[in-house]
Every structure is written in structure tokens, then in C-alpha cells.
Here is the input.
Amino acid sequence: MNTLQRILALAVKELLAVLRDKKSRFVLIGPPIAQLIIFGYAATFDLNDIPLAVYNEDRSVPSRELVARITGSPHFQLVATIDHDGQIAPLIDNRKALMVLHLGPRFSENLKRGKPAPAQVIIDGRNSNTALLTLGYLRTIFTDFNIAWAREHGTPPPPAILKIRPWYNENLLSRWFIVPGIVGLLTLVVTTIVTGLSVAREREAGTFDQLLVTPLRPVEILIGKSVPGILIGLIEGTFILLMAIYWFEVPLRGSLGALYLGMFLFLLSAVGIGLMISSLAVTQQQGILGAFLFLVPAVILSGFATPISNMPEFVQQLTLINPMRYFLIILRGVFLEGDSYALLFNQYWPMLIIAIVTLAMAGWLFRHRMN
Amino acid sequence: MKPGAAKRMRLAGMIRKESLQILRDPSSIAIAFVMPVVLLLLFGYGVSLDARKVPLAMVVEQPDASTASLIGAFRHSEYFEPQSFDSIQTAQQAFDLHEVFGIVWLRNDFSRRLLAEGDAPIGVIVNGVDANQARITGGYIQGVWQAWLADYARRHGVKLRAPVMLEPRIWFNAAVRSRNFLVPGLIAVIMTLIGAMLTSMVVAREWERGTMEALMVTPIRIGELVIGKLVPYFLLGMGGMLLSVAMALWQFDVPLRGSFWVLTAASALFMLVALGMGLLLSVVAKNQFVAGQVSIVVTFLPAFILSGFIFSIGSMPEPIQWITYLIPARYYVAILQSLFLAGDIWPIVLSNSAALLVMMVIFLGLARRKFHKRLDA
Here is the structure.
């Protein structure tokens, strides 16, 4: 038998080991689909229907107009109209309302006389992100109101105005940011689990020693064990990719080839890490634990939900060894920014290095960690 | 021997056996005490939504005093790190390479229009790929612009006409630190993980070593077996929990405005839910490959994405909101965020604790019943 045949035989055996069991098969297909759909909709930073309470002591035309501008926006939903101070705290404390708008009794009088008319806004800061976003929406509404008011009453406009234009994601939909990330998230989870248990399973069953005394060379074992993980990852990744494009309608603007090159390198490094964990583990239990211990920080420190640039310097350095960090940049770059090979070069080679180092370590551990 | 005394003895023996096992095998102690510290340190510092020192490209086509004052306003803001570029083309190249997050572009007629008719446009381009970051950065840019306008008006003796003034007050977190909101949620995520890990190891180990059958032939009842397994791990988990709370308070300076005892009681309840979930998983899943996948699927990822720890539940579509009711971490996150930042808000504490109580009864009840089936089989 030549090398190729031997590797092929091992790869087929590995695939069968995973796919033969009905439950294992289901676990590879069912949860990722459910997760993709649930997380694709759940993981959003966009706010709609922010519960709002209004405390309007003024009740004149301009104040009503301002209130109407806010309640008419798709971001806000009026949940209560109140008439004294004491009602504010219970609404906010119990999370019935995220914000209370308070207009004093002299609001329209001040406005008509050209004096500054304050509009008090109380926001629940328990979730600092929604508080900041709510404030951002309000600022835009207030600026529009002021400009309209100035125009109607013949007062001069402000000397300079700000025009912010977001590129690549013009309507700032967080789904466009999160869904490509889920491609990376789920392929990483599936591949790490599949490979993380492959050596440990054989160790437990005692068949790994048998494998070592077959004519298969360690390099061939390594490749044979890598192929199923990469294959399953590629199929899984392709499926999620199709869902992202056709179900979630995220625009794919760049080169598909650049994306697949990234996915291949990413899977290679995930398989390397999985096999390394697996050859360190004596039991499958330890394999699962090891996969867990790798996956949790790899997901949280990848830039999936919170940007890497917000992290302190030493944590940012730490993310350099996380393959998911690079793949997320590739995914988002290809999907939204229309990147091609050249722009992504700096994301490819670190994953290649991670893959080479981890695969080499795994191969070395195969032989040197007997019992 | 009276039935009561026998029961106490069996239970005490079981708890003693489990405790000895914990003491002899330090891996569960490591999971309970070392993991929360490491994870909280890593994530407490790593997970942040506060943009700081955002690199901005500044393109000024005709520099003079007024453009210099605007650029200066960006330079003095703690949120930005402006870099000057000669032309919009070079700025755009840096933008494409992600060297800068946005571009502020003042065209050559900026100063003329500023002094003449007003409405001089300040063009800003931000990278919208990360929509949330783009929104927050946009908010900071608006802040700089408004402060500069007020300053400009003061220096030129013009009256700034901003008819309605927005006076925001952020309650519970006046400085809008994302850490104050994320660290309590992280405690919930980490405790979900630890609870599930501690217990999923426990039962599988007994099966693996074949000692489960030995346990089965002793007079111990199923209920006692479950309680005996839970008590030592519950105490371990609570130790890890206290450690996490202490770190939140002293390492991350998150204020605790509610009562410590309410926090402890709610945490104890959640710990039982997390342990119950882990126990159920380890009893139900026969195949370890399945158990591994399932435990990640049902513990870590939902606690991360569906608990309200980072993505707010109110913005999710209706059907997804119903699913979040099945995630125990959701209730605990709500309790923690209120207890830490707002105080003892009883309606929130009580309604969420009631939900946790129901989940605890369901998980432990199911685990006990599934245990029973195994005995017969």
C-alpha cells in the first residue's frame, strides 16, 4: 500500500467513527442549524421599541411635537405617561421603562423667547450599551427638531453641521456584523469537538497503540486524523455560509475564493489545536474539558461580540495566537468590505503558522505520550 | 435503628465520601477556585464595549485657525487618536487597511462657509462593519462637535442657537462604564460553566470506574445519592462564587448597591440550578461525545448570547425572547445587574428568583427520575 491509500483508509475509518452513531450524527447537524437561526436573530445590538415614559408638564404644541417625534421613531415605544416626579423611580427601577423624558412647565415659553429650553432625560444605565445607544438616537432626534425649529422661526443655523456616513454597512445593521461571525463561531466549535476527542477515544479503547504499530507513519496518522475534521468543517461552514447569504441576506461583496482560503487555513489550525488537546488527554472526559477550556476564551477574545481594539494591551497581544481572530476579519472583510486576497494576506499567514505549530506538536505528542 | 437516623447516616456517609474524593483529586477544586479567577480576569479586562483612543484620519484641505480649533477638539478628547493626512485618497487607503476607524474631512470651503452663511459641513466617514462600535463612535463624535460649537460661539461672541437642550442623566452608572454592566453578567456566564463542569464530571466518573454499580447495591436511596453528590459540589461552587463577587468589587471596582445577603441567597439558588443542569446532562447523555457537544450547546453559548449579559433581550424578535425564558442564566443576570448597580429592587429579585426556583425543581426532579431508570435497566 502506498502512502495515499493508507491515509485514505484511516480517514474513512475516522469519518465512520464519527458518523456511524445516530446521536453523533444528529449532534453535528441539529444544534448548529438551531444555533445559527437563534443566535442570528438574538445576537443584535440594535435597539427597537425602547420602552419610554413621558412626563410632560408643558402640554403645549411644541412640546407635543417633540414628544411625537420621539414616539413616532421606530426605536421608541411609549409605555407610560406620568404626571408627577414620584412615578419616575419605580418605572426605571423595575425596568418598565428604559428612559423617562421630562419637559418642565416653562418649556415652550423658554423656547418661544429664545432661551435654552432644557429637556431632561433619565436613562437606566444598568446596561451601559443600551444607555449609550438610546442617547445617540435621542441626540439625532433633538438635532433634527432644533434644525426644523430654527428654520421655521428664522433663526440662523449652527455655523457647522456634522454629516456622519457609515461605509460598508450603511444602515448600521448589527446582523451584518454578527452573522458572518457565527460562521466562524460554529465551525470552530464543531471542528474542535470532532478532533478533540478523536485520539482520546482511541486511547480509551486501547486502539491507539494498535494504530501506532501499523505501517502508518506518524505523519500519515496526523493527516488521516485531520482530514475528517477539515471535511466536516468545510461542509458545515459552507452550509452556514449559504444560510448567511440566502436566509439572513448579508451581502457577499468580495471574492469567495479568498474566503475559502481563509476557511481552509482556519480549519487547519482548529484541527491542529483539537488534535493537540486530544493527544494530551488520556480520557474523552479530559478531551471535552480541554476543548471547553480552549473554546471559551477563543470565542470571547476573538472580536466576535466586543472589539479587540477595546481590550487592554496585554489581552490584545494574547489574541494574536487565537485563529478565530483572523478568520473573523476575513469573514467580515469579504462579506461587507469586498476584500480580496491581497488585503487579507496579513490574516492568512498567522493562521498558517498556528496550524503548522499545533499540528507538529500533535504529531510529536502522538508518539511521546504513551500512557 | 430509627428510619430517620439511618437516613441521616447514609447521607452523611455519602457526603463524606464525595468530600474525600474532592480533597484527593484536586481537579474539581481547581475548576471551582482557579477557573473563576482566571476567566474573570481575562474576560473582565478583555470584554469591553467602551471605545477608547479610536484612530481617526484628519483631512484638512485648507488649514487655518478655525479648522485647527476643530482638530484640537478631537485631539483633546480621550476617545480619539487623530492622525493627519494630506489628501482624502491617502486617508482612504489607511481606512481600507483598518489603520484608521474613520475619516474627518474638512473641504477647502469649510472656513469660508463657517464665517459666511453657516451650515459648513464636517464630513465624517466611519467603518460601519461593526455597527455597534460605529454607533458609539458616532455618538462620541457628536459630543466633540457640540462641545466645539459651544466653544466656537463663546469665542466669537455669537449666541449659539440650540433651542432645545438635551440634559441626559444616566442612572446607576453615571460614567457609563461598560465594565459595571458586563462583570456581573460574566459572573453568571462563568458560574453556568463551572456548575455544569463540576457535576458532569461527577456522575460520569462513577460510571467510568464502575463504582456506580457498587453504590447501587448499598441501601442508599436515589434522593440521598443525588443530595449527597450535590452538597459538596454546592459548597465548592459557592466558594468560587464568593471569590468572583470579591473580584468584581475589589478588582474591577463594580459597586454593590444591593444587600450582600440577597446576592448570596440568589447565587445559592442559581448554583443549584446550574449543578442540577449538569447532573441531568451527565445522567441523560450515554455517549461522551454527545455529552460534550450538548453541554457546550446548552450551557456556554446560550449563557453568552441569550442571557441578556451582552445582547439586550428586549431587542430580540418575539419567538427568540420566548426561548430566552428557558435559559437559567437569563434570570440570574437580571438579578445580578440590578443588585450590583441599582440595589434591592424587590419586584425584579423576587420574580426572577421564583423562575430559578421552578427550574431547580425541574432539573433536580428530572435528574432523580432518570437516575432511577438506570437502576432498573
Q: What stands out?
A: Chain A touches chain B through 109 residues (CB under 8 Å). Chain A has 15 helices and five strands. Residues 19 and 173 of chain A are 38 Å apart (CA to CA).
